[in-house]
Amino acid sequence: MFNSIQELVALAQDGGVPLWQVMLTQEEEATGRGQDDILEEMAGNYRVMKEAARAGILGVTTHSGLCGGDARRLYDYLQKGSVLTDSTLLKAVCYAIATNEVNAAMGRVCATPTAGSAGVLPGVMLAMQEKRSLPDSAIVRHLFTAGAVGFVIANRAGISGAAGGCQAEIGSASAMAAAAVTELAGGTPGQAAHAMALALKNMLGLVCDPLAGLVEVPCIKRNAAGAANALVTAEMALAGIESKVPWDEVIEAMRQIGRTMPISFKETAQGGLATTPTGEAWKQLLWS
Amino acid sequence: MPYRSVFEIIGPVMIGPSSSHTAGAARLGQLARGIFGEEPEEITVRFFGSFSQTYRGHATDVAVIGGLMGFQTDDPRIRDSLAYAKERGISVSLIPEAEPPEHPNTLTMALSRGTNKLNVTGVSLGGGAVRLTELEGFPLNLTGENPAILILHLDTPGVVAAVTARLAKNEINISHMGLSRRARGKVALMVIETDQAIPPEVEADLMGAPHVLRVALLQG
Fold this sequence. Notes:
The structure holds 2 protein chains of 2 kinds. Chain A is an all-alpha fold. Chain A is built from 13 helices and 1 strand, in the order αααααβαααααααα. Chain A has a domain at about 5-50 and about 135-285. Helices cover about 65% and strands about 0% of the residues of chain A. The model of chain A has no long low-confidence stretch (mean pLDDT about 95). Chain B has a 6-stranded mixed β-sheet. Chain B folds into 2 domains: about 5-140, CATH 3.30.1330.90; about 150-220, ACT domain (Alpha-Beta Plaits), CATH 3.30.70. Chain B is built from 6 helices and 11 strands. In chain B, a hairpin with a 2-residue loop joins β4 and β5. Chain B has helices at about 20-35, 50-55, 60-70, 80-85, 160-170, 200-205, and strands at about 15, 40-50, 90-95, 105-115, 115-125, 130-135, 140, 150-155, 175-180, 185-195, 210-220. By secondary structure, chain B is α+β, with helices and mostly antiparallel strands. The chains are: A mainly alpha, B alpha+beta. At the A-B interface, α2, α3, α5, β1 and α7 of A face β1, α1, α2 and β5 of B. β1 of chain A pairs antiparallel with β1 of chain B.
């Protein structure tokens, strides 16, 4: 089993295969399952991602009744055709928000790597699939690229907000999406790893400070930021820009930051946005 | 390495809003239910750390109760599990605790039905992965990914031999095994992880071994 990004990339380079293939082979070896069976399960997960994004665009109201409808707003804005940046970027952001609104409404999602960050990877992949008119199979394969990177981050640093803050959730999701979309766009395993590192570096230190202990504010909009960050860092990596800090050192930095982060910023709703006057008012409204 | 499969990273498919606080809690409930062996009449769940602060907003309460009623992580009934519990006549207590835990997402479950009683502690690691860490006060380290047999027995020479002989007879291969006890000659816990699923008749066979007090199967 690969235990570092360095090992993962070396396995891909030595075998002359993409990162997704290394992950798929490891899954076969670790579980004894056949390749078709594993690919079919991942295809099923991708169908869940698509359904969640679609439901979110139609418009949902979240569990608390305080959020929802922002994916719909972005979708309508996109349809008008005059966006500041680029429609692929905006679509990724729109689908990311849609997915996480559905999550906050206690709908059905696929955690990637967590539910609070479940919008980032599907947002980016769905937008790329549309832009390049790709078949589902191409996207499904590259979910293994995301999985490979997430696997290393999860085992070396962790992916829970309670242990590592939001950087461990949205940061990890963004790093996974950056690697996946880089490889999907034709980048090398090394470029995908640089995209992972660049994306994660941009998210280091991000705290988990959810209003009223919900998974709504700021979580939903941070999925948008994670998706946009993934596309920006993927473009940088495809242009040949490299992370000055080696891949695994970035992951180690995230672990250290998470370990030393105060508990009030680790999914306890005791600091940051959660304890602003508005955060306190929400808490009062919902739980007292 | 706590994570072994790509589907722990891209997955699980689940009802929101939190993989650690909702799906993980449901999974802990399911595992405890599996060990308990039947639907509890009384459930007391205590939340520690992040769980104690955000369990309502993260739906940890409904998820763990749903899991204890056997609901899967993507079962929409999780949303209304407290109503289902009431309908089924299950008494539920949910208690946030201030005491800081070793792991930030920790919960304990005290289950009872008649004379059947069980105390289990578990932690949620993130992304839906979990670990049971304590059973009846004995330390435990089970993720529920692989089948396992839990045996409470008297700490007496020959119990391990009797148990392993019965497993050998049933052609069950042991992948990992551990023993813990509080004091010499008192109640001890044997945990046996296996390569293959464990047929229910093996449970009865193991109950027949000398000095065995209780056997529970966890099917993985």
